[in-house]
Amino acid sequence: MPHQDYDFLYGRTTVTIPLPAEKILYDIKGGNLPAIADVPAAVRAALAAPVGTPPLRDIVRPGDKVAITVSDITRAWVQFHSFLPVLLDELNASGVPDEDITLIVALGAHRRNTGDEIALLCGETVCHRVKIIQHDAHDKENLVYVGATSRGVATYINKTVMAADKVILTGGIAFHLMAGFGGGRKGIMPGVSGYETIQGNHRYCLSAEIGQGLNPNCQSGRTAGNEMHEDMTEMAAMVAPAFLLHAVLTPEGRLGRFVAGHWYKAWEEGCRTVEQTYGVPIAEQADLVIASAGGYPKDINLYQSIKALDNAFMATKPGGAVICFLDCEDINEPPEYMEWLRYKDPLEFELAVRKRFTVPGYSAFRLKDMSKQVAIFGVTRPENFAVMREAGLRPVTGFAEAYDLARRIIGRDDYNITVMTQAANTVPLLG
User: Gene3D superfamilies under this entry (predicted)?
Assistant: First the structure.
C-alpha cells in the first residue's frame, strides 16, 4: 500500500509520519492571504471605502467626544500599534483633536493590564497622544444600564463608552471557540460590559437544560442560531457603535486585510475573509483525525491546545478517534485551568461553570466533554500523562502506539483519515 509523508509540528520539533494514501479523506490546510506591504496605506484605503457606512470623515464632527475600544494584551497579535496612529490621524483630520479621544482597553473580565503591556499593545506614540483608561467589569459605579436583551440578560456598559458621542470598535477577527468569530460586537460584550452581563451572556455556551453539558450551537465558525453570538449582538446594537476598524491576519501572523465601516456589516465582511483563509469545507467527518496544534507555542499547554483539539473534534465522527501531537512543555499552566480540571463528576463540573463562568473553566469542561464523544490520544512527554488523563485524554509517548489503539477503537479496516497539520488555525466547516 503506497504511503505519503506528513510533517507534524510537535513543540519545537517536527515529526514526519507516513500514512496510507488510500485512507486519506482530507488534508486540511488553510487558504492564502498575502501580507500587507504598506500598512498605513491599507488602513487609509479601508477608512476611505468602508462597508455599510459613509467614510469616517463624514461620520465624526468637530466637538465630538470619541471613544475607541481596543482589546487587551491577550490580543496583542492584532498589532494595534501598527494602525491606531493612522486612525487617530484620520480623526484629527476630521476635526477631532487627540484631547477629545479616549482609548478604552476592553478587558471584559480579564485582569488589569500593566503600563508596559499597554505600551506594547498600543504603541508608545499612542500612549502619549490620547487618554487611555481600562474597563473594570466589577466597578458598578462606572457602569450604565442600557436595557435587557430579548433573552432577558440585563446589559450594563462602561459609562465612558455610553457618554461618548461616537464609539469606534477596533480589533482583530479570527475563529472563536464559542462565539463563532472574534472581534466586532465582542468589543462591547464582553469588552466593556459589566461582570454580571458577561456571565449572563456566556452561560449560553452551555445547554439550556442543566445536566446536558455544552450548547452545540456555540462553536467555531457558527453564528446562525448561536445564542451567545445573537445575545452579544443585541447588546452591541444597544450601544450602536459609529464605526469599526478591524484586522485579519495571515497564517504567518502578519496583517493581511483591514475592514472598516458599519460595526456589524464590516465585521461580517472580515468574517468571510477568515472563512476563506482558515475555514475548510468538508462533506463528511472522518473515523480518525491526526493533528498537530502547530508546534510551540500553540501546544505549550493544554489550555492553548484546546483550539486545535476542538477543530480536530469537529472533523471527527462520533465514536471515532483523534491523535494529536501535544508537547505541552508547560503542562501545569495556567493555574486556573488546572484548578478546573479537578472536577471529576460531570454534573458537578457543569454546575460550577454555570455558577462562575470563566473561559478556562469552560475550556476544561469542553475538553472533558469532547473526550467522552471521541477518543483523544495525546502524543506527549511521559511527565504529562497524569494531567492529560485528568483532562480526559489518553496519553501516549509515540505515534505508533496511538495509531494502533485508535484503530482498535474504530474496529474496522475500512476506516478513513483526515490530516490537520495546522489544527489550531484551520477550522473544518461541515456542509
Answer: 3.40.50.11440, 3.90.226.30
